Write a sequence for this structure.
């Protein structure tokens, strides 16, 4: 789905993969996430590939939110049951507020496709005025998740940035 118009929000993509960061596996999730975001008028400022190291992830998220002030950060990988899967914990540690409905919606939609979605532990949070969403690591899950949530994200980001209309007032008209 392609939405025409000017770029509304800035974004960054962070991929967590030990093998990908060592060059042992080609990253397909990062380029796919970038493509889907750009098709929906998000400017992707950075596409970062990191090993599954919580401190590196926290450092990059803090830099992107506090210095670069991107509107949206999408992470992919590190959300499963492996001992190295620490993306949700790292994300929650740097959060100002949680936004659990997004992760819940992604899992609920994914469960319609595969029962394995119950093993995804991704979180969604807010740090300052940046929305951060953890997605699973597979390109298939990234595509399904982003295609599901992108049609709604603009509104959430507009509210976060203070530029949205009052939803209740809109409904009365």
């Amino acid at each position: 789905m392609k939405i025409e118009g000017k770029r509304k929000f800035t974004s960054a993509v962070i991929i967590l993969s030990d093998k990908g960061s060592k060059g042992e596996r080609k990253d397909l999730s990062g380029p796919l996430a970038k493509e889907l975001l750009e098709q929906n008028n998000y400017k992707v400022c950075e596409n970062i590939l990191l090993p599954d190291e919580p401190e590196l992830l926290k450092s990059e998220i803090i830099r992107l939110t506090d210095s670069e002030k991107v509107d949206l950060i999408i992470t992919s990988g590190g959300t499963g049951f492996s001992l190295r899967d620490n993306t949700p914990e790292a994300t929650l540690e740097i959060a100002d507020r949680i936004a659990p409905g997004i992760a819940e919606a992604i899992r609920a939609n994914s469960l319609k496709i595969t029962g394995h979605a119950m093993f995804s532990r991704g979180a969604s949070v807010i740090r300052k005025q940046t929305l951060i969403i953890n997605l699973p690591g597979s390109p298939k899950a990234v595509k399904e998740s982003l295609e599901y949530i992108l049609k709604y994200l603009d509104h959430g980001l507009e509210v976060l940035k203070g530029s949205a209309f009052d939803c209740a007032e809109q409904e009365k008209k």
User: Anything to note?
Assistant: The helical segments are 18-21, 29-39, 54-67, 87-93, 100-111, 139-161, 167-172. The chain is about 45% helix and 20% strand. The CA atoms of residues 70 and 95 lie 15 Å apart.
